[in-house]
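Throughout our pipeline, every protein is held as a single compact record rather than as scattered files. The record that follows is passed on verbatim for readers who wish to inspect the format.
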Amino acid sequence: MRGVFSVKLFNVLLGMGILFALWEGLVLSGRYPPALLPPPEKVLRGFQEIGENGALFRHAIVTLKRFFIGYFASSATAIVLGLFFGWLTKLWDVVEPVVQVLRPISPVAWYPFIVLWFGIGDVPATVVIFMAGFFPVLLSTVAAIRLIDPIYLKVARNFGIKQPFLMIKIVFPAIFPNIITGLHLALGAAWIFMVAGEMLGTQSGLGFLIIDSRNGFRTDLVVCSMITIGLLGLALDKAIVLFERWVNRVWGLGPSPEIRRS
């Protein structure tokens, strides 16, 4: 295990080293002035600046708060509706065309209406996150129920298991790996649109920090915000993996795909 961890750490450091080398190479080429492409050392000083004055921490906390509210609300709602529609196939046949029409519409396209309905502040950005994360989880849950092995349901009926225990004890554990896939996809989409939502109508958060830094011609702080968004997104994705491992261990579903690969 320690050897696997060392290899992974080496790969991460190697990848980051290559990225910084390419970045420094572009800066040294002189093709882009520092105002357009700040060098790594300037970005590090920017990190120090917004770290010491607390701006980075404040904006990151606000962003995470909005994200957790929107993401968890959308995931919980989508899982419940997905179980409902997946079980009632005839009802889903009626609802699916509406879902497929609404799904490709970017949450940002709804922003004028969201502002009119909810006003300015935290709520519009949270609603954008909710909309971005909703459809991946809903569709993955519905598809998972439709693909569930009928033998599970036959065995459950033979043992006299009825609703709601059939859904809780049999169906949900069986489709959990597919739901996790949807949660991964939803997390990526919600995190991306979270930044867009904060850029449009808020006075705080990492998305706002990018716009505010751009308006002040501080491209080094723009890059600082971008790096922070990337690192937090990576941490959130790893948190989903840890959650999957914990559920698999509790339910005895076996190791997650990432564990098997390692």
